[in-house]
Design a protein that fits this description.
Layout lengths: L5 E4 L2 E7 L15 E5 L7 H24 L2 H19 L15 H18 L3 H12 L10 H13 L16 H9 L6 H17 L6 H24 L8 H21 L24 H11 L9 H10 L6 H6 L5 E2 L6 E4 L10 E4 L4 H10 L16 H12 L10 H12 L4 H8 L10 H8 L5 H14 L1 H5 L13
Antiparallel strand pairs: 1-2, 2-3, 4-5, 5-6
Length: 497
């Protein structure tokens, strides 16, 4: 198929276009001369290829059009400053060399200024600039004639020489600087799969809103523009008879991500920016689906059916843990084998590391199918440090979707998160103490009307054998529907009397 930008290499199709020369220095391309996107490995028919090509072609053309409209003068000004700094260094100068020092006397500052001027005359850095402006003042050069680029660079260098050094800390920060500042501060590894998703989401945000100086007015204007655009995408999808996407929760995630990255840059550079997030039209149901005890038992039975087409050992492991605990997909995804203690008198798992909130780290006793859970952990990818093995490298949304394939056979509205709602519901219906619910679920004491002082005091004793035994008894009460479904209780490790 002869389509513009359609390229085949090693049996794979991709969309490739040369980046326009005037945009190669734009932060979006980072100096790259070629824009390249894979079309996917599963394309078979010409119709599928054309559809994938058209989607990437429109996206590229729209991106180029947008970048040419938004803030190009600002980008060029930034490039000019970089060239000016290089010019100063080449002649042995630094920014602020000619500016007065507030700790020196007036006479000392005049001496520094005179010495700098002498060095400037010796190096000839400003000779062509003086000559150009003298000719323009005398009429030899038309005042409407554009200032040559090398004169613009020298002009900027002169301004930098006279800028007080203390002001460099408050230098202009652009939106395009934010990701690098954020990644450096957080010591992020761009090779991490989850991070790449965040990086691509940031690039999508940045490409849409364009570059700008970080100020209150500019940032809020771009956040508002982004939300308006994304909500319009949802309206357009509904009009076309498609699924109402993106949902409000998706837009919230995208805005939260952008604000976190911008706020990091603002804090590090002492910028007076206080972000107020835009209002987002709510499209989500207020009540999330909660699984009933009967539905949980049915899902567990399906997950253990090794003869079914959808059976995977990691799915069985994930559902066996989620069915009896408050764990969510991302917590299991990051859970390492050294966080499980299933041979202890009281088998437990520990939720540690990167978690959603400060309350999420917790130790949870397992009371159901412990032997089977141990067996699965030992057999799933023995070489991996994660309990889910290679599946841990997939995105959280991918794992959740694969689990949903089982859940929806019992409850079409259920998601993997429904287990967490069910855990709280089962705990409350069995009259479990709110402090224990808060700890086992990683909820704040405030959300369950538990005094924070009581919560902090209680946490100090959670690692003791007495508290572990108490929590094990609590877990048995919460999961009595699962334990009663077993013909025996051999799956529960007894605590010695």
């Amino acid at each position: 198929m002869k389509l513009k930008g359609l390229v085949e290499a090693n049996g794979y199709l991709s969309y490739q276009r040369s980046v326009p020369t005037d945009l190669r220095d734009h932060p979006t391309f980072k100096g790259r001369k070629l824009f390249k996107k894979k079309l996917g490995a599963k394309l078979q028919t010409e119709e599928e290829i054309h559809k994938a090509w058209l989607e990437h072609h429109r996206a590229f053309e729209s991106l180029i059009s947008n970048l040419r409209k938004v803030n190009l003068p600002l980008i060029k000004a930034r490039e000019l400053a970089i060239e000016a700094r290089n010019l100063l260094k080449a002649h042995g100068f630094n920014e602020g060399d000619r500016s007065p020092n507030p700790f020196f006397t007036d006479e000392d500052n005049r001496n520094i200024e005179n010495l700098t001027d002498y060095k400037l005359d010796q190096t000839g850095l400003l000779d062509e600039t003086r000559e150009f402006y003298n000719k323009r003042d005398s009429g030899e050069i038309d005042v409407n004639e554009d200032v040559p680029s090398h004169i613009q660079v020298a002009d900027k260098a002169w301004n930098l020489l006279n800028t007080p050094k203390g002001e460099f800390k408050n230098q202009t920060i652009l939106l395009s600087d934010c990701w690098d500042i954020y990644a450096e501060k957080k010591e992020l590894d761009i090779q991490d799969r989850q991070l790449r998703k965040t990086f691509h989401r940031w690039n999508f945000f940045f490409d849409l809103v364009g570059d700008c100086v970080l100020t209150n007015e500019e940032i809020h204007g771009r956040l508002d523009h982004y939300v308006t655009y994304r909500e319009q995408c949802r309206k357009d999808a509904v009009k076309a008879g498609k699924k109402a996407t993106p949902s409000s929760s998706t837009i919230h995630k995208e805005i939260n991500m952008a604000c976190a990255i911008i706020n990091q840059a603002a804090r590090l550079h002492r910028l007076s920016i206080k972000i107020i997030k835009p209002d987002i039209q709510d499209t989500e149901p207020k009540e999330r689906e909660t699984l009933s005890p009967q539905e949980i038992m049915a899902i567990v039975e399906l997950a253990q059916n090794t003869h079914s087409a959808y059976y995977k050992s990691w799915k069985e492991l994930a559902i066996l843990i989620m069915a009896q605990t408050s764990c969510i997909t991302s917590e299991l995804q990051r859970m390492e084998k050294n966080s499980t203690f299933l041979d202890a008198d009281i088998p437990v798992i520990k939720v540690m590391g990167k978690v959603k909130t400060k309350n999420r780290p917790r130790t949870i006793p397992l009371v159901y199918k412990v032997d089977r859970i141990r067996e699965l952990i030992n057999t799933i990818a023995p070489e991996s440090k994660y309990i889910l093995g290679a599946v841990a490298d997939k995105t959280e949304s991918n794992i959740s979707k694969q689990l949903k394939n089982i859940l929806e056979k019992v409850n079409p509205k259920a998601t993997a998160y429904s287990f967490r709602h069910a855990f709280k519901n089962n705990a409350q219906t069995n009259d479990i103490d709110n402090q224990d619910i808060a700890y086992l679920g990683g909820w704040s004491g405030y959300s369950l009307q538990v005094n924070d002082i009581m919560m902090n005091y209680g946490k100090k004793g959670l690692e003791t054998p007495e508290m572990a035994l108490k929590l094990q008894r609590t877990m048995k009460r919460i999961n009595k529907h699962l334990l009663q479904s077993e013909p025996t209780e051999n799956n529960v490790i007894r605590f010695p009397a």
